[in-house]
Every structure is written in structure tokens, then in C-alpha cells.
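re: that chain from earlier
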Amino acid sequence: MSFLSTTATSAAALPTNFSNTSCKIQLALYAVPVGASEKKAQDSAQEATIQKIHDEEPALFEEQDCIMRTVAKERQYKQATPFKTNVSLESLADLMNDNQLCIRMSFLRPGFNSSNNVFMINSAKLQELFDSDADENGIKRVKIGFDEVVSSERGFAVLAVQQKPPSNQHVAYACDFTMAETNDQQMHSMY
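^ sequence. v structure.
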């Protein structure tokens, strides 16, 4: 018999008009892609660097849950919770430069025959993000599209970072994805 009463805990409330989804967002490090005629196998030094970074900061590279809403015939997917990492993106950008690496941001749909969207973030794009102005909440954002074209028809991603005092280094905050509703629906598994 317990002398203390308990209260029911509810799940975290979702922002207005958002619903849960089975879609995920994931970051990963890869060698910078080259043309087919210049293709070379990823060298062992690159592989070792990638593995070391993934092992050192797994929270940055884990699949992240998403929530979704539809606004004006666009599906807007938001990372459900911010990254739980304190790794300096400036130091990551330096490693990316030194080892010819890039960040692959993947938007993952459930189902064995679904299509996923993948975006490349290079160190120059990170520097553009570091140099941008923060919003009222101290968040800096950069949009990433296909072939440098940001369009909801083809889909685009947003990487958000936050500057942490006292070092003023940037840490990953969240990733988002937006695509036209009809195009997004076609990319989901029919089974």
C-alpha cells in the first residue's frame, strides 16, 4: 500500500497543427562525392576519420523523430526534439575540410519501397550558416536544396544551429524538411 498518490503523466504536447509521423531525419559523414570518371574508393584514412567522429559523437548521427503539418499544400517535417550534442560544428567543419568530407542529411520515409531525400552539406555551407544572423531565439538557419535550388516542389532541408556561450561555437540544433504535399505522397511506400 502506498501513502503517496501519483498523477498521470501525458506525452509532450505537440505544437499547434502538428502530428506524429514515422519519418526520420539523420545526419552522417561521407567522402565528398566526385564525378564517375574521377571516382576512387574511399581511402582508409577517410573511413577511419568518419568512424572516429561517429563513435565520438553518436547523438549527432542518430536517427531523429519528426513531426509533420501541412500548410498551403506543403508538408513541413520538423525534428521532434533538438539534438542532444555539444560538439563544435566549427571543429567538425575543419575536419571536413582536412579530410574531404561532407555531411549527408537524409530524410527517411518508412516502408521498403519508399523514396528518401538526401542533401549534401559541405564546409562552405556550414561557414555560410555560421556567418548568418540569428533569429530572436538565437537560432541560425540555412536552406539546402537540390542543385542549389530551394523549392518545395523538389523538397528542401533546413539545418539550424545555435551559438553556445562562452566559446560562441555553434552546435547543431535541428533539421527540418519541406516538400509539396502531392510530390511527398508519391515518395511514400504504397505497401
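Helices lie at 44-56, 58-61, 89-99, 123-131, 181-187.
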